[in-house]
Write a structure and sequence with these properties.
binds D-MYO-inositol-1-phosphate, 26% strand, single chain, binds calcium ion, alpha+beta, D-Maltodextrin-Binding Protein, domain 2, Inositol_monoP_metal-BS, five-stranded mixed β-sheet, 263 residues, seven-stranded mixed β-sheet, Fructose-1,6-Bisphosphatase, Chain A, domain 1
Length: 263
């Protein structure tokens, strides 16, 4: 398999899809909700996903596509080549802010992440990586991440963690957000993963993410030495949703062992 050719192909699809999304703001966008009133989807999420699925099915019929809006394949194993695609990660931002959303894509071979892409569409910023070949922000190579103490760290965490919830012990999380330098919440898991990989934030934690939210970002994160696991400390499984944490080296163990207690 020629991964360089697949890499060039994937990048050109991403850029074409990004253009479609930017152009979509010139016409009316149809908004629907899915599981609940705040779980939003638009015709553009669907159109971008079907654009990828149709192209990949035509040009690589043996590859599988796992994607959010239902145009891809249902898989029960990670054998072969699997594309994990989120056509728009941060749909709420896409609708409300018209920025701060990304196309997220990971290409895995027999369960191993080989290529990863996060494209911040409105900023025209592409974060990408190939396994063992380094990670890039546009054409600039991203340096290896260095250790940062918690006191100097900015943590990507959503306010729902400190509201009463059935997943985690709130007191510990309150201690974590009090001890770190600051917190941020961008509303796109992919962008938050890209920000950890490029050193803009130092950790990102989520209670529930789908494979298409994280598959591309994990490949990028690993190339710069970030540590990405579920909240049990093992590789997130990509056949269903999972908890998630990604940090610079050094912070992962401390946050998981001292501050995150799952109920
Ligand atoms: C969502 C975003 C959000 C995260 C949610 C995801 P979507 O993806 O990444 O930041 O908190 O868990 O589902 O639905 O906008 O693709
Ligand atoms: Ca969604
Ligand atoms: Ca998503
Ligand atoms: Ca999405």
């Amino acid at each position: 398999m020629n991964l360089n050719a697949i890499d060039r192909y994937a990048k050109s699809l991403i850029k074409e899809a990004g253009h479609k999304i930017r152009v979509s703001f010139f016409s009316t966008i149809d908004i629907d909700s899915k599981a609940d009133a705040n779980d939003l989807v638009t015709n553009i999420d669907r159109e971008v996903e079907s654009f990828f699925v149709e192209r990949v099915k035509q040009d690589f019929p043996e590859h599988k596509m796992v994607s959010e809006e239902g145009y891809g394949d249902k898989i029960t194993s990670l054998d072969g080549v699997v594309w994990f695609l989120d056509p728009i990660d941060g749909t709420m931002n896409f609708i409300h802010q018209r920025r701060n959303f990304a196309i997220s894509l990971g290409i895995y071979v027999d369960g191993v992440g080989m290529l990863g892409y996060i494209y911040d569409v409105m900023r025209d910023e592409l974060y990408h990586a190939a396994k063992d070949e380094g990670a890039y922000f546009n054409d600039e190579r991203l340096p290896q991440l260095e250790i940062t103490p918690l006191e100097d760290a900015i943590i990507g965490i959503n306010a729902s963690w400190v509201a009463p919830n059935h997943r985690v012990e709130n007191e510990k999380i309150i201690e974590l957000v009090t001890r770190c330098r600051g917190t941020r919440s961008y509303g796109s898991a992919a962008i938050e993963l890209a920000y950890v990989s490029s050193g803009r934030i130092d950790a990102y934690i989520s209670m529930r993410l789908a494979p298409w939210d994280i598959a591309g970002g994990i490949v990028i994160a690993q190339e710069v030495g970030a540590v990405a696991t579920n909240l049990e400390g093992v590789t997130p499984h990509l056949l269903g949703s999972d908890t998630f944490i990604v940090t610079r080296p050094g912070l992962h163990e401390e946050i998981l062992s001292k501050y995150i207690r799952l109920k």
